[in-house]
Write a structure and sequence with these properties.
The complex is a heterodimer. By secondary structure, chain A is an all-alpha fold. Chain A has 7 helices and no strands. By secondary structure, chain B is α/β, with parallel strands linked by helices. Chain B has a single domain, classed as 3-Layer(aba) Sandwich (Rossmann fold), CATH 3.40.50.300. In chain B, the strands form 2 sheets. Chain B has a 6-stranded mixed sheet with strand order 6-7-8-3-9-10, with helices on both faces. The chains are: A mainly alpha, B alpha/beta. Chain A: It comes from Oenococcus oeni (Leuconostoc oenos).
Chain lengths: 228, 255
Amino acid sequence: MSRIFDIEMEDLDDQFRSMGKMVARTIDKSVVGFMAHDTKTAEEIIDRDHEINEREAAIEKKTFEMIALYQPVTTDLREVVTILKAVSVLERMGDYARDIAYSTIRIHHRENGDRRMPEIERKISEMGLMATRTFDEILDAYVSDSIDDAQKVADHSEEVSRLSATIRKDILTSMKGDVDTIDAGADYLVVVGYLKRTADHATDIAEWLVYKRSGKIVELNPGSSSFI
Amino acid sequence: MAEKENYLLTTKNVNLFYGKKQALFDINLSFPKNGITALIGPSGSGKTTYLRSLNRMHDLTPGVKVEGKFLFHNNDIYSDNFDLVDLRKRIGMVFQQPTPFPFSVYDNVAFGLRLGKKISKHQLDEDVEKALRQAGVWNEVKDRLGANALGLSGGQQQRVSVARVLATKPDILLLDEPTSALDPISSRVVEDSLLDLKKEYCLIIVTHNMQQAARISQTTAFFNDGRLIEVGKTREIFLNPKEEETQDYVSGKFG
């Protein structure tokens, strides 16, 4: 016999996963849009950011209700808390996708004389794909509820982090060599930062998954909480 | 509460006196056709007194005076032309202690049915089974319908008591702390049965267990000192009650 709490939890779980997919699609689109210089997609992402925020608010409200009405303990409590914490992270990731969209538009509308850097853009695309993959993995780990899978996410997110350091160096080198690339370069740096943070946040969710399974609050990638 | 919603039972300006002492003050409360309404409040707040007034349980207590309107299908249950036996069939009561009669499970459930007009053995069998199923106890007792109900566990006895009330096909079930004499596991089984019943019946439950009220009811009414302090959606009462008294009580600061 399933408890009312279990039925409600299933619903909360569905809402969380559905929001996760929504954010995954948005990140994916923002990266593809950035590579393709597709300002229309970028505008669409910006217009629809509020949908992600609304999902977050609805899920938060539901977790408050579940805590107040069912007063969960042990694993039940951890499940609810994990969602409450992870949902803010998802929302933040949605914001980064929106910010990448802003960069896509800004770079497109630059004045003459400004130059883009195809080689750098290619590397950023590669990094974008890695970051979205990490994000997909964290959603899978949420479903599989496995500490090993969560740890893998943290490892992959560290790779994204290392790649971001390399690309950053390349961007700075270009900017020093050719002042016409400074404007675009500044945006590239920002986008690289957002992608790095997206991967870092996947690790944050991974940490909550470990908490959900084990009750232990851990740090999987110590020090990975800056844009650079 | 909005008037346009369809209520099965509406009480207006209910005042109740035990002799000179007033126990209920101007209670206005309505109950929808289905769903669970929880009445909560500290001991002596009047919630049980109010519940018992809903099927005229005070009639036999000397010195009790009940005032106000109790509209059930637009008839006042306190009017002279309301048949008391009929009323108690349509508004049944389940008590805190399981109340099995000292005879078989089958006869316990058939008891109310036999009070009415004569029905065939076949029909009786069907009705008994249906009631036991609705009360969520059929699978546990189907092989010992002839056994004495006193031999069942507390949780089973309570669900048989629920089945006995259900057999008479009531519209409303009044439950006076139906799980407070049971262990947590049996309580949960009874709660699960109630949750199934709420789809078809109007359940009104008095409970001291606030978690229970939060878990199973859609509407919660908070009583204190014979007054209805606040009534609303259960989630509102437990998340954002309007009254400070409600807030203090549900968060355990008094009572």
